[in-house]
């Protein structure tokens, strides 16, 4: 009995399929099925031995339905499916009203729901935790009445076409708790990465939509939180950020805040994991619970002295936290200091330190002071590394081991102090379970010599006398020193590598050998002077250091070059799993719009890839930490067009020729093509999202010729200071057109063609794009949602009603309009006057 | 200063309390100085003694008043006293420990003061007895070690350090202090490090610990294997080294601040302007006021750390927000993460500590910057011996730094720019540069500035030849590094060139006076070779082609100096005499400079003649220079980019011996065991016991 409830036999399905209006009992059982997640993250697969033959094991058992109609589901067109779905949905919505009434009358006991509706189900595994069980009753209730009508919808949900995007869409649009609960459970069957993309949407729905949706989402979130520290923190941060627009009084008691507290209290420990770990895992699997300091469990980590010290960094952070909390005078009794969870603490503390630095930098008046302060603060931060901390923007698991503090730069910003840091990490299997790397002191590369460097002790006087001698070309008995020193120079000084003029160093060696020959060597003064000017001319692509724009030099340096340089200077550089990451720390900025833009860009990128339109865009990752702080993954090998122009004093085209070679060289043509593809991509983005504030400081140019738009502070309904500038569809200056080869060139036509293709492709998948934006509008005070027509306008910009010919005309018009647009020029002039941006 | 005052206060108190009636403790001392065993009459004599408040003056005075033979007669009792002191250190009763520590100190001092001539062995015999000495000292050191490392009272730790300082400085020449042999065997190095690595203990005892370490390192440095040297050189624990750096940083900052205060005191106000109007006859007085007691002990510690421990170099660049010590007396040393267990990392500390000022004018500083500022103050005035020694030590430290590749790397790091306000001597012919106008530059610029500043301000009759030589060597070492690594500093090299040329000019015009005392040819050779570096290797480290032109311009402009120098060295080298050899080296070194002058001067003259200009402008000269490079041939000289590595032994050994002697005297004078008044101790321990 229990089994039949949990899964459908093929016969039942057959029956269900043939007679949509079959008996209510059988459908009830079929629909209640997925809402029992107690059997694990994938409840549907594990319990269906009877249906598994002939089916991919990973697909839910109800695929049988589509299996039954076999070919149909494969031929099904997305649009058709969607339409069908929408029809069904309409019906469901319509029926919902009835259901409400009838259920209320037929099962009054369950409204307050202490009685467990499933308790009657004989053989079913009984234990379902409360939070997860709650929706079930609703499902049950609804299904009794609507089951027959919903089976179509169900078939869609179980079909292969049903992806996370559709899931999110139904979760948002459906007012039917049954559907919501079903999808909530269905979330378990998607890959984590797929769901992660929609995490902001899920959590925003959780915070701002009605209870049913929240109840549907919660089990999944809780489950994932138990699994992963990273997910827990992401959730906590997003929940905090998206709750911030609520009124303070409601916020405190809102569901979002509660869930956030629950996560941060670290009660969501890995329940299943714990069991798993207890058996095979050695002690260092999770940070030791050190509240009162000095390592209880450290000794187990490693016998070596240094490990002993450094493995405490986790503890260090938690200790420092509690001691800090004690210190704040305004808040003498801080309750959190006691129950601050250890699992999440190191990372939270790390992020907090980075944000604290940003806050303090903002108080300093000049870039120079900020830079100095930044470097000194980071050097102190280094003392606490390595630790069980990581950069959430990275794509792989790792531990942060060192921040090369002298490489950090303060970015250009008027009153905030965003800064860019480079972070050395060691890649690892799993940052939660892999042990934290051992600290290697800064001086490690040199420390081997410490012992030899006892110039005057333990050496007999005559030995000492011999050590007192000149060092001719570093080849006497001091060899160990000097050879090393030279090696070290290469480690620490990039110049020596970048310099190609080996003849000079040869030359200086000659100067010593000449001593023996006693033959005087003559050199021409002119040669020296010439070499000097030549060498300086050899390095034109580096930017000059400008105290007012410290980031220009750092960003201009090729990434690979920088990685190599930092790696050589790092005590961890020799490790094979060493990686360099970078991150921009933003403090005092709301990154929620940036995150929204990232999601839209990413979605469009996927769509264009799917539709094989060679548009190039670069969505960069955003980490929202709160409503006024976050982190951004920097675009590497890219500098802003403003910096390019200021530093090179060239037109964009001339700069392209300087960097990539003359017209018709393959390099130039490649760069030009990259430029066109990225330009077309971003023009569409700018149009669709109405990205404003497009001055040259916000457009980057990478080393391959792509442009990358950054700073999505003004999108959709918001515009800077409402000056009404930038009325053109997107920014297309004559300089850009010049790089494309002029208005009559093939590349310019290619550009317009790409735009058209891109727009057509985007239009085809409009729903996917719109839903991202639409869900985030819920409960949001963000300026980009200002007014009531944001979504309508967004939809209109996809021009669903136009034919492709009409679209082509539209694109032509937009390009024309932007080109002639005086406002773009005017805006650049305005920026130059106000911000000094060229 | 404070210590002295307190001591004076104490002295006054004791003298006033001198009554005909003797204190009990004094009676007990008298019993010890009798030949009888004091326990004969009173078996609990020793227990009682250590419960008594120590009368240091009486005990010391008594010991001093005895001559050698008399002491030998009561040797057993003194041995016994020493023995019981050491035993009392292990007592739980803290008052006893305090009294034992103070008594020990009085013993060490008293015995030494009387027996300056006595050999170390006699003294050991007197105090402990030959047969027991090793055991007693082992016990003593172990007790001190556990007191220093334990969680006991901070005052006790402080007393332990004072006792050690007292022991280390009882002789003028530290190497003659034979008792220290036992301190070498029973090392307390680890205890010192421990103090330095812990934030709170560092704040309270860091200074004493660092001075003690610096002194111990200098015990028989050149004659034997000193375990402290060996150990110090291999320390690689960052928090400990940082802690040491902090203590030094703090002490130097304090000095800089005091100096600045005094300077402002002297400058500000109506009275000072009036007094300066009155005339320059009081300038000497003003200078006197400006001199703040220099602190060679801490400088010596810095030297030993830099010289012996390569890891310490990183500490130099470790930056801290510069905290005005006066405003935050409660947290004297900016906290840093000390142990890896890290009580409070400063960044977090700063974040959450509202008291700490977020002053936008707050400069980020590091030990090196503070040291450079300190040096700039000390080097201003080298007239008296102390300051001369301080300045010399500063230059020696800079020499060590300039030789270290890692230090060079961060000195030249383009990312680490700092504004370093060096103190400049007020001089008639130059305005005091506005502090704010100093650009933020890599630290090497500050070092070069300091060297240039020194060069132009010390051309005086009492010519500090030794300092000049070191100064030019430092510049040379830095340039060698730049050449080797092809680092192009945007430094105003012109200032350096003109300073060097002026130096040559000074040497020339004071030839006879200077030659009587110094080998001026060595210095002249170094200076000329610096020019040779620029001339032949300028392409590898000069920032722009025009800076190379400017070099030629400067040489041509000052050609008279070089020509005179050539005449002089030629003259000396043709005469037989002690200077023949060094002078002839200079003649050879001048070959390229002379080639330049001989090549360009006629060209410039003809240019002037052709264009009918009497006085060429700088641009015109540069024009001539630029267009005539190709016909000039230079001779490549050997070994321009090589230098002697710094080596303490044997060249500097004498200097350090004297320095340590003067530091010992100074420390001995200032260590006062009675700084902590008995009341404070009593108050502290009454609750414990």
Automatic annotation (TrEMBL), chain A:
Give the Basic and acidic residues compositional bias ranges.
127-137, 270-279
Listed cofactors: Mn(2+); Mg(2+)
Q: Which residues form the PI3K/PI4K catalytic domain?
A: 557-823
Which residue ranges have biased composition labelled Pro residues?
280-290
Q: What is the lineage of its organism?
A: Eukaryota, Metazoa, Chordata, Craniata, Vertebrata
Identify this protein by name.
Phosphatidylinositol 4-kinase beta
Biased-composition ranges for Polar residues? 314-335
Q: What is its main location?
A: mitochondrion
EC number(s) from the headed UniProt entry: 2.7.1.67
Q: Which UniProt keywords apply?
A: ATP-binding, Endoplasmic reticulum, Kinase, Lipid metabolism, Membrane, Mitochondrion, Mitochondrion outer membrane, Nucleotide-binding, Transferase
Which InterPro entries does its entry note?
A: Kinase-like_dom_sf, PI3/4_kinase, PI3/4_kinase_cat_dom, PI3/4_kinase_cat_sf, PI3/4_kinase_CS, PI3K_accessory_dom, PI4-kinase_beta/PIK1_cat, PI4KB-PIK1_PIK
**Catalyzes what?**
a 1,2-diacyl-sn-glycero-3-phospho-(1D-myo-inositol) + ATP = a 1,2-diacyl-sn-glycero-3-phospho-(1D-myo-inositol 4-phosphate) + ADP + H(+)
For bias type Low complexity, the affected ranges are 19-62
The topology of this chain with respect to the membrane is: Peripheral membrane protein
Q: Write out the ranges of the annotated region (Disordered).
A: 1-64, 105-144, 270-345
Entry keyword annotation includes Nucleotide-binding = yes
Q: Which domain of life is it from?
A: Eukaryota
Q: Which organism does this sequence originate in? A: Sinocyclocheilus anshuiensis
- GO cellular-component term (any): mitochondrial outer membrane
Q: Which gene encodes it?
A: pi4kb
Automatic annotation (TrEMBL), chain B:
Q: Does Transmembrane helix appear among the keywords?
A: yes
**What GO cellular-component annotations does this UniProt entry give?**
cytosol; membrane
Where does it live in the cell? Answer: Membrane
In terms of domain of life, where is this protein from? Answer: Eukaryota
Q: What is its main location?
A: membrane
Whether Transmembrane counts among this entry's keywords is: yes
Its keywords, alphabetically, are: Membrane, Transmembrane, Transmembrane helix
Question: What's the protein here called?
Answer: Armadillo-like helical domain-containing protein
Species, as recorded: Sinocyclocheilus anshuiensis
């Amino acid at each position: 009995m229990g089994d039949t409830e949990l899964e459908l036999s093929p016969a039942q399905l057959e029956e269900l399929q043939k007679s949509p209006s079959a008996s209510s009992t059988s459908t009830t059982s079929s629909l209640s099925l997925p809402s029992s997640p107690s059997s694990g993250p994938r409840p549907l697969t594990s319990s269906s031995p009877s249906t598994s033959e002939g089916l991919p094991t990973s697909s839910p058992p109800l695929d049988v339905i589509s299996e039954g109609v076999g070919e149909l589901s494969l031929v099904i067109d997305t649009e058709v499916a969607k339409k069908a779905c929408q029809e069904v949905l309409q019906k469901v919505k319509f029926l919902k009203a009835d259901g409400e009434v009838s259920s209320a009358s037929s099962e009054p006991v369950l409204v307050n729901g202490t009685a467990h509706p499933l308790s009657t189900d004989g053989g079913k595994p009984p234990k379902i935790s409360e939070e997860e069980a709650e929706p079930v009753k609703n499902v049950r209730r609804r299904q009794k009445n609507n089951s027959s009508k919903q089976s179509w919808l169900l078939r869609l949900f179980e079909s292969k076409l049903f992806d996370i995007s559709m899931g999110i869409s139904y979760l948002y649009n459906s007012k039917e708790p049954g559907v919501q609960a079903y999808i909530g459970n269905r979330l378990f069957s998607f890959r984590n990465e797929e769901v992660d993309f929609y995490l902001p949407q899920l959590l925003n729905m959780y915070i701002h939509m009605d209870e049913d949706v929240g109840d549907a989402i919660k089990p999944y979130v809780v489950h994932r939180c138990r699994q992963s520290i990273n997910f827990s923190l992401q959730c906590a941060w997003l929940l905090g950020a998206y709750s911030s627009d609520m009124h303070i009084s409601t916020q405190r008691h809102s569901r979002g805040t509660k869930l956030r507290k629950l996560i941060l209290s670290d009660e969501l420990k890995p329940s299943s994991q714990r069991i798993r770990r207890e058996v095979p895992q050695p002690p260092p699997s999770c940070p030791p619970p050190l509240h009162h300091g000095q390592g209880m469990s450290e000794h187990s980590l490693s016998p070596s002295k240094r490990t002993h010290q450094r493995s405490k960094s986790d503890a260090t952070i938690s200790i420092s936290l509690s001691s800090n909390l004690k210190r704040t005078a305004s808040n003498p009794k801080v309750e959190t200091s006691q129950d601050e969870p250890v699992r999440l603490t190191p990372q939270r503390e790390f992020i907090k330190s980075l944000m604290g630095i940003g806050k303090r930098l903002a108080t300093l008046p000049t870039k120079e002071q900020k830079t100095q302060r930044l470097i000194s603060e980071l050097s102190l931060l280094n003392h606490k590394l390595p630790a069980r901390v990581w950069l959430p923007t990275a794509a792989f698991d790792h531990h942060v081991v060192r921040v090369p503090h002298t490489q950090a730069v303060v970015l250009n910003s008027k009153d905030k102090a965003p800064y860019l840091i480079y972070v050395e990490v060691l890649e690892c299997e799993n940052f939660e379970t892999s042990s934290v790397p051992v600290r290697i002191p800064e001086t490690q590369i040199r420390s081997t010599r410490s012992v030899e460097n006892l110039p005057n002790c333990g050496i007999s006087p005559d030995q000492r006398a011999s050590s007192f001698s000149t060092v001719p070309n570093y080849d006497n008995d001091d060899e160990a020193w000097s050879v090393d020193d030279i090696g070290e120079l290469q480690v620490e000084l990039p110049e020596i590598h970048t310099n190609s003029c080996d003849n000079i160093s040869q030359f200086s060696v000659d100067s010593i050998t000449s001593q023996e020959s006693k033959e005087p060597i003559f050199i021409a003064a002119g040669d020296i002077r010439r070499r000097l000017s030549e060498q300086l001319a050899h390095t034109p692509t580096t930017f000059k250091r400008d105290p007012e724009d410290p980031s220009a030099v750092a960003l201009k340096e090729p990434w690979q070059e920088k990685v190599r340089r930092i790696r050589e200077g790092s005590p961890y550089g020799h490790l094979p799993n060493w990686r360099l990451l970078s991150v921009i720390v933003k403090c005092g900025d709301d990154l929620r719009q940036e995150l929204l833009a990232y999601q839209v860009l990413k979605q469009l990128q996927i769509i264009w890839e799917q539709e094989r339109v060679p548009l190039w865009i670069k969505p960069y990752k955003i980490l929202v930490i709160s409503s006024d702080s976050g982190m951004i993954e920097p675009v590497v090998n890219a500098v802003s067009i403003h910096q390019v122009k200021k530093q090179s004093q060239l037109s964009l085209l001339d700069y392209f020729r300087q960097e990539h070679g003359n017209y018709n060289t393959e390099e130039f043509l490649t760069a030009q093509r990259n430029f066109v593809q990225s330009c077309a991509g971003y023009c569409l983005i700018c149009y669709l999202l109405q990205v404003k504030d497009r001055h040259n400081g916000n457009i980057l140019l990478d080393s391959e010729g792509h442009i990358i738009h950054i700073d999505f502070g003004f999108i959709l309904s918001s515009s800077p200071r409402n000056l009404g500038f930038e009325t053109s569809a997107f920014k297309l200056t004559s300089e850009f057109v010049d790089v494309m080869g002029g208005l009559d060139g093939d590349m310019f036509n290619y550009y317009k063609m790409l735009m058209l293709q891109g727009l057509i492709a985007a239009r085809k998948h409009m729903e996917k794009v719109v839903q991202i934006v639409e869900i985030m509008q819920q409960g949001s005070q963000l300026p980009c949602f200002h007014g009531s027509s944001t979504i309508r306008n967004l939809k209109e910009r996809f021009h669903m009603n136009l034919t492709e010919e009409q679209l082509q005309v539209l694109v032509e018009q937009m390009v024309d309009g932007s080109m002639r647009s005086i406002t773009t020029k005017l805006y650049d002039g305005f920026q130059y006057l106000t911000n000094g941006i060229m | 200063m404070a210590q002295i005052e307190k001591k004076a206060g104490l002295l006054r108190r004791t003298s006033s309390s001198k009554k005909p009636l003797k204190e009990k403790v004094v009676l007990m001392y008298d019993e010890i100085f009798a030949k009888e065993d004091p326990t004969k009459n009173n078996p609990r004599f020793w227990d009682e003694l250590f419960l008594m408040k120590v009368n240091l003056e009486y005990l010391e005075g008594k010991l001093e008043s005895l001559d050698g033979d008399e002491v030998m007669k009561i040797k057993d009792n003194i041995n016994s006293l020493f023995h019981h002191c050491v035993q009392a250190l292990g007592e739980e009763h803290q008052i006893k420990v305090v009294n034992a520590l103070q008594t020990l100190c009085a013993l060490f001092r008293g015995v030494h003061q009387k027996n300056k001539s006595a050999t170390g062995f006699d003294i050991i015999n007197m105090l402990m007895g030959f047969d027991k000495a090793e055991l007693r000292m082992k016990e003593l050191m172990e007790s001190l070690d556990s007191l220093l490392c334990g969680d006991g009272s901070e005052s006790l730790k402080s007393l332990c350090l004072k006792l050690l300082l007292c022991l280390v400085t009882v002789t003028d020449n530290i190497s003659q202090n034979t008792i220290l042999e036992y301190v070498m065997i029973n090392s307390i190095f680890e205890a010192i490090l421990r103090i330095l690595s812990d934030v709170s203990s560092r704040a309270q005892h860091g200074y004493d610990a660092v001075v003690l370490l610096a002194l111990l390192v200098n015990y028989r440095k050149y004659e034997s294997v000193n375990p402290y040297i060996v150990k110090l050189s291999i320390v690689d624990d960052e928090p400990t080294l940082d802690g040491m750096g902090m203590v030094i940083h703090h002490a130097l900052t304090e000095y800089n601040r005091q100096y600045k205060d005094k300077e402002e005191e002297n400058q500000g106000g109506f009275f000072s302007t009036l007094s300066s109007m009155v005339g320059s006859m009081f300038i000497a007085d003003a200078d006197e006021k400006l001199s703040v007691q220099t602190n060679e002990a801490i400088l010596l510690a810095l030297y030993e750390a830099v010289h012996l421990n390569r890891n310490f170099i990183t500490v130099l660049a470790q930056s801290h927000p510069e905290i005005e010590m006066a405003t935050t007396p409660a947290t004297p040393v900016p906290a840093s993460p000390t142990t890896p267990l890290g009580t409070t990392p400063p960044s977090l500390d700063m974040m959450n500590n509202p008291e700490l000022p977020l002053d936008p004018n707050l400069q980020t500083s590091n030990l090196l910057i503070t040291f450079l500022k300190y040096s700039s103050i000390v080097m201003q005035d080298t007239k008296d011996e102390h300051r001369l020694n301080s300045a010399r030590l500063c230059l020696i430290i800079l020499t060590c730094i300039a030789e270290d590749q890692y230090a060079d790397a961060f000195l030249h790091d383009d990312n680490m720019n700092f504004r370093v306000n060096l103190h400049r001597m007020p001089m008639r012919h130059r305005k005091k540069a506005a502090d704010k106008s100093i650009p933020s530059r890599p630290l090497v610029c500050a070092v070069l500035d300091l060297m240039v500043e020194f060069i132009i301000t010390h051309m005086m009759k009492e010519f500090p030849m030794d300092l000049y030589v070191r100064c030019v060597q430092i510049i040379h070492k830095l340039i060698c590094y730049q050449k080797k690594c092809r680092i192009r500093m945007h430094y105003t090299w012109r200032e350096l060139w003109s300073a060097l040329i002026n130096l040559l000019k000074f040497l020339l015009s004071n030839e006879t006076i200077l030659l009587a005392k110094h080998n001026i040819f060595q210095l002249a050779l170094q200076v000329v070779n610096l020019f040779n570096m620029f001339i032949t290797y300028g392409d590898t480290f000069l920032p722009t082609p025009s800076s190379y032109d400017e070099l030629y311009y400067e040489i041509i402009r000052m050609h008279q100096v070089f020509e005179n120098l050539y005449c002089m060295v030629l003259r000396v080298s043709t005469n037989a005499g002690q200077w023949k050899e060094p002078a002839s080296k200079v003649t050879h070194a001048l070959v390229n400079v002379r080639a330049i002058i001989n090549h360009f001067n006629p060209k410039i003259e003809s240019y002037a003649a052709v264009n009918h200009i009497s006085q060429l402008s700088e641009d015109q000269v540069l024009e001539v220079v630029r267009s005539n490079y190709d016909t000039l041939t230079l001779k490549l000289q050997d070994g321009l980019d090589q230098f002697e590595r710094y080596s303490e032994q044997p060249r500097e050994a004498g200097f350090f011996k004297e320095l340590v002697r003067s530091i010992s005297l100074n420390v001995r004078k200032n260590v006062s065991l009675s700084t902590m008044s008995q009341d404070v101790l009593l108050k502290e321990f009454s609750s414990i016991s």
